[in-house]
Amino acid sequence: MVYGSGAYRATSPDGVPNRRNTANSGNSNGSYQRNEQSGAYQHQQGTTYQPPQLTGGTYAEQQTNVVEDAVRTQIEAETTATKISDQFGRQKQQLQNANDDTWAMRQNVAEAQRELKELQQKARVKKSRLYVIIGMLSTVDLMLFFRIVQCGGSFFCRRY
After folding, report:
1. pLDDT in tens, 8-45
2. What is the DSSP string of 39-94?
3. For the whole model, what pTM was predicted?
4. How far, CA to CA in Å, does 18 sit from each of 6, 39, 42, 45, 49?
5. For 101-122, how does the pLDDT look when each residue is reduced to its tens digit (9 = 90+)?
6. d(CA 11, CA 5)
7. Which residues contact 6 (CB under 8 A, 6 or more apart)?
8. For 13, what's the count of Cα atoms within 13 Å in the CB-facing half-sphere?
9. Closest to 18 (Cα-Cα) out of 42, 44, 39, 38
């Protein structure tokens, strides 16, 4: 057995392997609670932890194997930590890019709102100018209409 495997020995006292019943999840009534008859969840009868069996000749060789295994575990942990750190860096960059894009979008929206307000103001000014022109033309039209009425249907009145 390789050091660090820490395998559980699931055998009964007479050496026959215990088998878990995985046919149905939960107990007979369909719930996922532990069975009260079997005892505690983590401690089942016949299942005891067996520490790894150290192979090698002398105590020094066994300890060397333990240290080598510890170094391998440390290197694996450092490699995993580096990968996770790199992944966090990439995620941070993605979040920063998304934040920058959000600020750029907000600026674009603010600029579009400002331009829309300017266009609305220009449209109001043009509309008011048109009302003034309509009023002036209506006044001139009324004056000409009264002149035609005064002159007896003729546009040019002859008073001499």
Report:
1. 444 555 554 454 444 444 454 444 444 445 444 455 55
2. --SS--TTEEE-PPPP-SSSHHHHHHHHHHHHHHHHHHHHHHHHHHHHHHHHHHHH
3. 0.43
4. 18, 15, 15, 10, 14
5. 999 999 999 999 999 999 999 9
6. 17
7. 49, 51, 52
8. 1
9. 44
